[in-house]
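TEACHING EXERCISE
Course module: macromolecular assemblies
Task: Read the component lines below, then compare them to the predicted structure of the full complex.
Student: A.B.
Group: 4
Components provided:
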Amino acid sequence: NAGVTQTPKFRILKIGQSMTLQCTQDMNHNYMYWYRQDPGMGLKLIYYSVGAGITDKGEVPNGYNVSRSTTEDFPLRLELAAPSQTSVYFCASSYVAGTYNEQFFGPGTRLTVL
Amino acid sequence: QKEVEQNSGPLSVPEGAIASLNCTYSDRGSQSFFWYRQYSGKSPELIMSIYSNGDKEDGRFTAQLNKASQYVSLLIRDSQPSDSATYLCAVKKSGGSYIPTFGRGTSLIVHP
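Instructor-supplied answer key:
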Protein backbone atom coordinates (compact mmCIF):
# COMPACT_ATOMS: atom_id res chain seq x y z
CA ASN A 1 0.00 0.00 0.00
CA ALA A 2 1.24 3.47 -0.87
CA GLY A 3 -0.93 4.94 1.90
CA VAL A 4 -1.76 8.62 1.36
CA THR A 5 -0.03 10.34 -1.55
CA GLN A 6 0.00 14.04 -2.37
CA THR A 7 1.13 16.00 -5.38
CA PRO A 8 2.91 18.29 -5.92
CA LYS A 9 5.52 18.34 -3.13
CA PHE A 10 6.34 22.00 -3.70
CA ARG A 11 4.69 24.81 -5.58
CA ILE A 12 5.15 28.54 -5.99
CA LEU A 13 2.10 30.52 -7.09
CA LYS A 14 1.64 34.13 -7.99
CA ILE A 15 -1.12 36.12 -6.31
CA GLY A 16 -4.42 35.47 -8.05
CA GLN A 17 -3.44 32.17 -9.63
CA SER A 18 -5.35 28.97 -8.96
CA MET A 19 -4.24 25.40 -8.46
CA THR A 20 -5.40 22.00 -7.29
CA LEU A 21 -3.59 19.95 -4.67
CA GLN A 22 -4.07 16.26 -5.31
CA CYS A 23 -4.60 13.63 -2.61
CA THR A 24 -5.11 9.90 -3.08
CA GLN A 25 -5.38 7.06 -0.57
CA ASP A 26 -5.39 3.34 -1.28
CA MET A 27 -6.54 2.08 2.13
CA ASN A 28 -10.28 2.24 1.40
CA HIS A 29 -10.70 4.77 4.19
CA ASN A 30 -14.06 6.47 4.48
CA TYR A 31 -12.89 9.77 5.98
CA MET A 32 -10.47 12.17 4.32
CA TYR A 33 -9.21 15.54 5.54
CA TRP A 34 -7.25 18.58 4.45
CA TYR A 35 -5.15 20.49 6.96
CA ARG A 36 -2.82 23.43 6.74
CA GLN A 37 0.08 23.93 9.10
CA ASP A 38 1.77 27.26 9.63
CA PRO A 39 5.04 27.47 11.59
CA GLY A 40 4.43 26.88 15.30
CA MET A 41 0.67 26.95 14.84
CA GLY A 42 -0.39 23.31 14.78
CA LEU A 43 -2.80 21.76 12.33
CA LYS A 44 -5.90 23.60 11.17
CA LEU A 45 -8.69 21.70 9.44
CA ILE A 46 -9.75 23.15 6.09
CA TYR A 47 -12.29 20.62 4.81
CA TYR A 48 -13.17 17.02 5.42
CA SER A 49 -15.21 14.27 3.80
CA VAL A 50 -17.04 11.36 5.39
CA GLY A 51 -17.43 9.51 2.11
CA ALA A 52 -17.73 9.92 -1.64
CA GLY A 53 -20.01 12.82 -2.48
CA ILE A 54 -20.08 14.24 1.07
CA THR A 55 -17.87 17.11 2.20
CA ASP A 56 -18.02 19.66 4.97
CA LYS A 57 -16.16 22.75 6.11
CA GLY A 58 -13.55 22.73 8.81
CA GLU A 59 -12.06 25.56 10.82
CA VAL A 60 -10.51 27.59 7.94
CA PRO A 61 -12.39 26.89 4.66
CA ASN A 62 -12.32 30.37 3.10
CA GLY A 63 -10.43 30.49 -0.18
CA TYR A 64 -10.59 26.74 -0.73
CA ASN A 65 -12.92 24.22 -2.32
CA VAL A 66 -13.04 20.44 -2.33
CA SER A 67 -14.82 17.60 -4.04
CA ARG A 68 -14.88 13.88 -3.47
CA SER A 69 -16.20 11.88 -6.38
CA THR A 70 -14.44 8.64 -5.42
CA THR A 71 -13.38 6.97 -2.17
CA GLU A 72 -9.73 7.31 -3.13
CA ASP A 73 -9.39 10.95 -4.22
CA PHE A 74 -9.91 14.20 -2.36
CA PRO A 75 -8.50 17.20 -4.28
CA LEU A 76 -8.22 20.65 -2.72
CA ARG A 77 -8.75 23.64 -5.00
CA LEU A 78 -7.25 27.06 -4.29
CA GLU A 79 -8.94 29.89 -6.15
CA LEU A 80 -7.32 33.33 -6.43
CA ALA A 81 -4.26 32.52 -4.34
CA ALA A 82 -3.28 35.01 -1.63
CA PRO A 83 -0.06 35.33 0.42
CA SER A 84 -2.06 34.21 3.49
CA GLN A 85 -2.37 30.79 1.85
CA THR A 86 1.38 30.24 2.05
CA SER A 87 1.58 27.13 4.20
CA VAL A 88 2.21 23.41 4.29
CA TYR A 89 -0.85 21.39 3.34
CA PHE A 90 -1.44 17.89 4.61
CA CYS A 91 -4.03 15.43 3.43
CA ALA A 92 -5.05 12.65 5.80
CA SER A 93 -7.40 9.70 5.80
CA SER A 94 -8.91 7.42 8.40
CA TYR A 95 -11.21 4.46 8.72
CA VAL A 96 -13.84 5.55 11.19
CA ALA A 97 -15.73 2.88 13.09
CA GLY A 98 -17.11 3.55 16.56
CA THR A 99 -14.49 5.43 18.50
CA TYR A 100 -11.70 4.17 16.24
CA ASN A 101 -10.33 7.08 14.24
CA GLU A 102 -6.60 6.83 13.60
CA GLN A 103 -5.47 9.27 10.94
CA PHE A 104 -2.75 8.65 8.39
CA PHE A 105 -1.10 11.63 6.77
CA GLY A 106 0.36 12.24 3.36
CA PRO A 107 3.84 13.77 2.93
CA GLY A 108 2.50 17.28 2.44
CA THR A 109 2.62 20.04 -0.14
CA ARG A 110 4.66 23.15 0.60
CA LEU A 111 2.96 26.10 -1.08
CA THR A 112 4.35 29.61 -1.40
CA VAL A 113 2.23 32.46 -2.77
CA LEU A 114 4.21 35.51 -3.93
CA GLN B 1 -9.43 27.39 27.87
CA LYS B 2 -8.15 25.85 24.65
CA GLU B 3 -9.75 22.57 23.64
CA VAL B 4 -6.45 20.69 23.61
CA GLU B 5 -3.45 22.17 25.39
CA GLN B 6 0.18 21.20 25.28
CA ASN B 7 3.27 22.90 26.60
CA SER B 8 5.14 24.06 23.49
CA GLY B 9 8.52 23.33 25.08
CA PRO B 10 11.15 22.65 24.12
CA LEU B 11 11.47 19.78 26.53
CA SER B 12 15.12 18.82 26.75
CA VAL B 13 16.16 15.45 28.17
CA PRO B 14 19.45 13.54 28.15
CA GLU B 15 19.83 10.39 26.13
CA GLY B 16 18.58 7.36 28.06
CA ALA B 17 16.19 9.34 30.26
CA ILE B 18 12.40 9.19 30.35
CA ALA B 19 10.66 11.96 28.45
CA SER B 20 7.21 12.86 29.74
CA LEU B 21 4.84 14.78 27.47
CA ASN B 22 1.50 16.03 28.72
CA CYS B 23 -1.78 17.07 27.15
CA THR B 24 -4.98 18.38 28.72
CA TYR B 25 -8.37 18.66 27.09
CA SER B 26 -11.55 20.55 27.86
CA ASP B 27 -14.37 18.25 26.67
CA ARG B 28 -15.10 15.83 29.52
CA GLY B 29 -16.90 13.48 27.13
CA SER B 30 -13.92 13.01 24.82
CA GLN B 31 -13.55 9.43 23.68
CA SER B 32 -10.42 8.92 21.61
CA PHE B 33 -6.87 10.16 22.18
CA PHE B 34 -3.88 10.07 19.90
CA TRP B 35 -0.21 10.93 19.92
CA TYR B 36 1.55 11.85 16.68
CA ARG B 37 5.24 12.44 16.12
CA GLN B 38 6.32 15.03 13.58
CA TYR B 39 9.91 15.44 12.50
CA SER B 40 10.92 18.83 11.14
CA GLY B 41 9.73 19.20 7.56
CA LYS B 42 7.81 15.93 7.63
CA SER B 43 4.18 14.90 8.12
CA PRO B 44 2.65 13.72 11.41
CA GLU B 45 3.00 10.00 12.12
CA LEU B 46 0.67 8.16 14.49
CA ILE B 47 2.59 6.53 17.32
CA MET B 48 -0.07 5.78 19.95
CA SER B 49 -3.83 5.73 20.34
CA ILE B 50 -5.69 5.18 23.61
CA TYR B 51 -9.39 4.87 24.21
CA SER B 52 -9.84 3.86 27.88
CA ASN B 53 -8.45 4.94 31.22
CA GLY B 54 -5.10 3.59 32.27
CA ASP B 55 -1.83 2.82 30.55
CA LYS B 56 -1.11 1.46 27.11
CA GLU B 57 2.40 0.36 26.27
CA ASP B 58 4.04 -0.11 22.89
CA GLY B 59 7.77 -0.68 22.96
CA ARG B 60 9.45 2.35 24.52
CA PHE B 61 6.22 4.35 24.43
CA THR B 62 3.51 4.41 27.10
CA ALA B 63 0.33 6.43 26.79
CA GLN B 64 -1.52 7.24 30.00
CA LEU B 65 -5.13 8.40 30.07
CA ASN B 66 -6.96 9.90 33.03
CA LYS B 67 -10.45 10.94 31.98
CA ALA B 68 -11.42 12.19 35.45
CA SER B 69 -8.56 14.70 35.39
CA GLN B 70 -8.87 15.24 31.62
CA TYR B 71 -5.29 14.61 30.69
CA VAL B 72 -3.36 12.23 28.53
CA SER B 73 0.38 11.79 28.63
CA LEU B 74 3.07 10.09 26.61
CA LEU B 75 6.15 8.59 28.23
CA ILE B 76 9.19 7.75 26.14
CA ARG B 77 11.61 5.45 27.95
CA ASP B 78 15.31 5.25 27.10
CA SER B 79 15.03 8.41 24.99
CA GLN B 80 17.22 8.53 21.91
CA PRO B 81 18.38 11.52 19.83
CA SER B 82 16.18 10.10 17.04
CA ASP B 83 13.16 10.80 19.27
CA SER B 84 13.81 14.53 18.89
CA ALA B 85 10.67 15.82 17.19
CA THR B 86 7.43 17.63 17.85
CA TYR B 87 4.74 15.51 19.51
CA LEU B 88 1.14 16.33 18.73
CA CYS B 89 -1.75 15.35 20.95
CA ALA B 90 -5.14 14.86 19.27
CA VAL B 91 -8.50 14.35 20.95
CA LYS B 92 -11.80 13.27 19.46
CA LYS B 93 -14.58 15.04 21.33
CA SER B 94 -17.92 13.55 22.24
CA GLY B 95 -20.70 13.64 19.68
CA GLY B 96 -20.57 15.11 16.19
CA SER B 97 -18.42 13.80 13.39
CA TYR B 98 -15.13 12.03 13.86
CA ILE B 99 -12.90 15.05 13.68
CA PRO B 100 -10.05 15.10 16.18
CA THR B 101 -8.79 18.37 17.60
CA PHE B 102 -5.02 18.81 17.63
CA GLY B 103 -2.88 20.57 20.17
CA ARG B 104 -0.03 22.78 18.96
CA GLY B 105 2.55 20.19 19.90
CA THR B 106 5.50 19.88 22.27
CA SER B 107 9.02 20.04 20.92
CA LEU B 108 11.27 17.34 22.40
CA ILE B 109 15.04 17.51 22.23
CA VAL B 110 17.06 14.50 23.30
CA HIS B 111 20.72 15.43 23.71
CA PRO B 112 23.57 12.91 23.75
